[in-house]
Structures are given as structure tokens and as C-alpha cells.
Amino acid sequence: MATRWPRVLTPTYLSQIIRTQKNPSKALQIFNDAKTKYPNYSHNGPVYATMISILGASGRINDMRSLIEQMREDSCECKDSIFVSAIKTYVKAGMLDEAVSLYRDIPRFNCVNWTESFNTLMEIMVNEDRLESAYRLFVESSCGWVVKSRVPALNLFMYALCQKGRSDLALQIFQEMDFQGCYPNRDSYVILMKGLCHDMRLHEAKHLLYSMFWRISQKGNGEDIVVYRTLLDALCDEGKFDEAMEILGKILRKGLKAPKRCYNRLDLGQCRDGKDIEGIKRLIHEALVRGSVPSLASYTAMAVDLYSEGKIDEADKVIIEMQSKGFKPTHTIFEAKVAALCKVSEVDEAIKAIEEDMVEANCLPTARMYTILLKNLHNLGFLTAVLKSLNKMSKTVGFNTDKETYCILLEMLCHERRYLEASEIMEKMSHKSYWPCEDSYNSLIKGLCGLGRQYEAVMWLEEMISQGKFPEVSVWYSLTSLFCVSDKMEVYNETFSCLTSL
């Protein structure tokens, strides 16, 4: 179909045109033709961002690299998000060094703030266990004004060291923050407290708690209970119940600014024999929840933290408590609950949480809930139940299944060899212009050939090629075998001729 060019072209209009193209090559051609057809037209940052995103999503690394260089030569003002997208594309393709090289080239572009790119690359390098390279990059970037905040990067270093059992080094980083001109945030305290308690450095953990009282807990913020709970649980695990009680009192008075009635009534005498450690912890957790200033943030922090540790019953009690105080559970809480239930194979309960509990709490279920559900689905035997629930929710007003959810479903169905259902999912995706990756197309087409479904196989092959994606050789073998068996070689030859003309 020929492109309908307007009388006057703007970057916004060009972005709209190229977004509607299924084939990235066609979109790039239109992008390049714009300057030829309109001599006075110039690309701007947003239209470059759109084209770079399309090329990156389709895996056209060389074209993306060339376009980034063209953007540099045009010297148009661009946002940091362009480089974040390109860095993620390089990393997904296994080209981390290329991502680092692009980051180091950002000063050559007309971009005045690359904090997001810096934090993105630092997180990737830490996750890839390239701490020394990440440290060198941090030193290079920490002295300039273009990285607005170094706290997220320092938090990443502390987290990585704590994961390696070196909370002592993480503590040194924390103590150096003042000299770096940084101000530790709540994440800094959460990461370090968990690291110190895991390594049983309880003396340092207590000092960290006291420093927290006068730095970020001066007004009695309930979100801090995650940090407090970590230390109190560690003391209980070591059998230091009296010390835990003493510190709990200080937390309630100084950290949470709780009214006296909350800690005067606290009685753990029934558990002081130390036999029921989990029972003591539960009572302490309840005291923290009751003692915190009632707020949506404090209840959310506590519930999410408990769900992340698999303490589902305790987290459910927090939800009941917050509802009794007039607060409604948030999407964040339900996402944590669904993930926790899936980890213990309670998929039916997870579906119930989405279909019933969220509705009762006036919290509209979203596609992200099903994405989390599918990502944590260790037993594919529950896939049918998830599909049934998703189809049910898709009929409700305001619910829209997103591309990520569809792609995960498609991959799972192909893995389970449920190719007809996968084809139905693909049809729904095509109606919304959601296009899967080449691997999904290859798996589906070969699977349909194995079932003798030549019409669907050819239909999706045509769709695949129309998007500029190229099937594996094994796909052609599967098609050839299918047509040979069905004695329809003439049809195959006609199909092949049509496909080569696309």
C-alpha cells in the first residue's frame, strides 16, 4: 500500500505514519524518504526515538546503530530515553560492550542529562556480575553534572555486595555516601539492613537502625517498618528476645512515633520460652502494624514485604487490618500476593485473588496481573485455568490484554504443543497489531504443519514475511513435507511464488 504523504509534513505526523507500518524496513524507508520529499523538513528527537525503538524491537541492530549515528550528525536535541532503549536492545542481543560504548558516546550527542542511561547500564552490569567494570564506569560518571543522582548506583553496589555475603563492604559504601555528597534513601537502608542481618552483623545493624531514627524516620514514617522488621526478626532468630523487645520499644517511640497505648499493652510473656519463634515474630509484626501511623504507604510496604518472603497468612492479616482502617489494597499488594501464591503452586487462589478479591476491593484487574501470574507459573498444568480466567476478564469493561501477556501465552502454548490455541491467540494479537518475535512464528508454523493445518501455517508464514521477518530453513522443510504428504505440490509452488513476491 502506497504511503499517503501530507501537504506539510511534521515530525509528529511522520511518527504516526511509521508506527502503522508492520514491516520495519518499510518504516525505515519512509523515515529516510521524508527529507527527500520535503527539503525544508528536519527530523527531531521524538521521531528518531520512534524509529530507533521500532528497529530495536525488531532486532535490526545494524540499522539501529546507523540511525543513532545519523541522529548524532543531525545534532537534534534528544532525550535520555532513546539511549536507554538502545542499551537494552544491545544487551538483549548479547552485546553489552556495545551498550557501554554507546553510553560513553552520549557526550557527543545533544543530550544534557543521561541519568536514566547511567542507572540502566549500571543495573545491567551489576546483574551480569561485572562489578569491576561497573565501578570504573561509576568513577568516570560520578564527577560530572549530567548524572543527577548517584544514590541508585550506590544502592546497586551495596545490593551486589550483600548478595555475595560482603555486607561489611556494603557498609563502607553506605558510610562513604556523605563524602560523595549523596543522601541515603529508604532503599539504601532496606538493602543494607537485610545484608547485615543475613550475615549476622547485628551490632552494626543496630547502629544502622539508630542512625535511621534521626535521618529518615524523624516524622514517624510507617514505610520504615520493613527495615525495622528485618532487624527484629534477625534478633528473634538468634534467640535475643529481650533485646528484640527493648529495640521494639525504641522503634515504636522514636521510629514510628506511636502513641503510648500501642507499646504499653505489648505482652510477649506467653512466648518468652523461645519455643515458638515464628509466633513471637507474628506478635512483633502485629505490634509494628498497630504502632505505625495508619497510611496506605505503611500498610502496602508491610504487606508486600511479607508476601515477598512467602508469609501469605500474615500479609493477608495486614490487608484485613488496613481495610478495617478504611484503606483499600493497591495493585502493588495484589501483584505481590499473586506472585507469592504462584510460587507455592496455589494458582487457583491466585486466580481467585484477581477475579474476586480485587473486585471486592474496587481494584480493577489489569493485564499486568496476568503477566505476573504467567511469569511465576512453574506448573504449566494450570495454563488452561489461567486462559479461562483471562478470557473471562477480557470481557469486562476497561480490561485490555497487553502485548507482553499475549507473547508469554503464545510461547507457553507452543511449548505445550497446543498450536491451535496458540493460533487463536495470534489472531487476537493481529487484531491489536501486536507482533511476536521470529521464534514464536517459527514454532507456531512448524507446529501447525505437524497437525496438517496447512491453511493456518501458510497464513502465518505470509504474515511473518510481510513484517520483514524470515523463517528458519526448518519451517520450509515442514511446509514442503506437509504439501508432499497431502499431494498438493502445485498449491505449494503457487504459495512459494506468492511468498517470494512479498
Helix-residue proportion: 55-70%
Oligomeric state as shown: single chain
Secondary structural class: mainly alpha
Q: C-alpha Rg, in Å?
A: 28 Å
Mean pLDDT rating: 85
**SSE sequence, one letter per element:** HHHHHHHHHHHHHHHHHHHHHHHHHHHH
The major pleated sheet works out as: none
Model regions low in confidence, pLDDT < 50 over at least 5 residues? none
Spatial gap, N to C terminus? 12 Å
Offer a few descriptive terms.
mainly alpha, 502 residues, single chain
Describe the structure.
- The chain is mainly alpha-helical.
- The chain has 28 helices and no strands.
- The mean pLDDT is 85.
Summarize the structure.
The protein is mainly alpha-helical.
Secondary-structure topology with pairs:
Layout: H1 11-19, H2 24-37, H3 45-57, H4 61-74, H5 80-92, H6 96-105, H7 115-127, H8 131-141, H9 151-163, H10 167-176, H11 186-198, H12 202-215, H13 225-237, H14 241-255, H15 260-264, H16 277-291, H17 296-308, H18 312-324, H19 331-343, H20 347-360, H21 367-375, H22 383-394, H23 403-415, H24 419-431, H25 438-450, H26 454-466, H27 473-485, H28 489-500
Helix pairs in contact: 1-2, 1-3, 3-4, 3-5, 5-6, 5-7, 6-7, 7-8, 7-9, 9-10, 9-11, 10-11, 11-12, 11-13, 12-13, 13-14, 13-16, 17-18, 17-19, 19-20, 19-21, 20-22, 21-23, 23-24, 23-25, 25-26, 25-27
